[in-house]
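Q: I have two molecules that I believe assemble together. Could you output structure tokens for the complex as a whole instead of separate predictions?
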Amino acid sequence: MPDQDVKTVQKKILLVEDDPLLVKMYTAKFTKEGFQVISAQDGEAGLNLALKGDVNIIILDVMMPKLSGIDLLTKLRQDPRGKDIPVLMLTNLTQEEEAQKALSLGAKEYLIKANLTPSQVVERVKKYIG
Amino acid sequence: MLLGITIVVVVSNFLLGFYSYRRDRESVTHKLLFILSIILSLWAITNYISVSVTGTKALFWIRIVMVMTAAMFPALFLLVKNFPHKQLEISKKYLYLIIGFTIFIQILSVTPLVFEGVKVEGDAVTPVPGPAIILYALHVFAFLILTIYTLIIKYKKFKGNEKRQLKFLIIGIVLTFVLATITNFVFVNLLQVTSFVALGPLFTLLLVGFISYAIVKYDFLDIKILTTQIMTFIIWAALFSRIFASETITEIVFESVIFLIVFAFGILLIRSVMKEVTQREKLEVLTRKLKEMDKQKDEFISMAAHELRAPMTAIKGYLSMIMEGDAGKVPDQIAIYLKDAIEGNDRLVRLVNNMLNVGRIEEGRMVFQTGVVELAEVVTTIFDEFKTQAADKGLEYKLEVAKGIKDKVEVDKDRIHEVVTNLLSNSIKYTDKGSVIVKLINVENLVRFEVVDTGRGISKEEQKKLFQKFGRAESSSGKTIGTGLGLYISKLLINKFNGKIGLDSEPGKGSTFWFELPLKA
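A: Yes, here they are, computed for all two components at once.
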């Protein structure tokens, strides 16, 4: 019989970011904070992971090869599996049109990477998935 | 006098048409204008002759005038149809059809079918219409209607510069043909009055003038030179001819002197118009270049700022993670150095943000997430962030929030955070000894934020510069610090939130940077 231990299920973060340096950094931080992290370095791979794996939250960059963050978000929301996953846009672009579009597609927040430490990003994540 | 008018009109029409043609020999529109101007000149000449002769000679010349008129309207229609294009806009088939029919009408005009003969009553010579006059009238009005129709369609279709050109064309045509038709056709045929026929040619000058102006679009400034030359030439010719019309020596001398004076002034006038035109052209070129460079500068700043952000994120991230102990316990000495590194990087981030934001705020592209913000909370957070910096400089550092302060304001939280940070960091940066006191008080229905420091104080001239774009001040060591964007952006932001920002300072007596915001009701 399976163990009846009460084990807290690790929350899973999907990080979609094309800069490997930043992927490494955020993964290290999120892991340290007790999250499970999967990552993708382009929009297409990111969308696949989002619809496949049971992720609790998606951290999404905007400028990416193959499929941009906004396009990914649009496609995600069209799929019943991806409709309700909380999404945080994490980017270094400050285009207002992108921000508005993202928020209107149900992104929880539009964050500028350069203004936040990884810890601060973790705080925001915890706000949405505990 | 009539001869004078005619000569002037013929010469001017021809010159304008020729000048326009020379501008662009390949363009159909330019060619058509030239052709039209030739037709109009011929018309002016034959018109003059027709009113200067009598009897059967008059009949002959009146018929010749009709030949010219018959060509005028199709020519105008073709010009309008092609305006302002370089290529032929109608098929060759229609072109030949139009030309063929026009020639037919012209042949008719020389026969008694259009004008049977003339009625001579004393000095007045009135043509008697023949049976084919109806056909003639139809020909003329058909092309007139076609012209108007084409103009209407084009007017609806054209936009911007082309539309402007078209407006000139329309005004010129309407004016000329209405006036000319009245004097040369209506008066003559319906009212039997021929005395105004001679004026006809003058109106053609209007037409050709307007059309030249319309076509030579980018070079309309050159038309200014040309018109000045034509007008001056006309006046010279008129005054010169008066010398010959003089009867006494006194008159001759008088007219000669007048002519010479006007001649001299004419030369000066032409020179000065030319100078003005060339200068204006240079100015336009320079202005365009300047605008282009300004746009490039903004684009460069944006691009550079974006590129800088990625590595800055990595630096900020890793430094903070090390500081938080993610890589193990941080020895004290390392922690001290790390803190300075973090501070340096944060300044870098703020700088880059300013560079990125300034253009966007100025052009209204920045989107604000306005909400109710408790100013005291923001101020306290930022105050705490700078505690160590102030301590390192040995400054007395206090926060005084008035008791029972009303501090709810309607602003963008991140932006107001920026403004407070900017003012506070400035004060600490520029104060080497003494104190930096942060105050938050209520003034009537406003909340007022102040940073009072004991820095070196700022003179009135420098105060004016500080809130301007790229305006900076000197530190006490005489070095200018900062890019000068922080205060400028702060001013833009506070103004956006319906507040006021300012500085009270005197050299040697420290400074008080302050801003006031209206309270949320």
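A: One point stands out. The mean pLDDT of chain A is 87.
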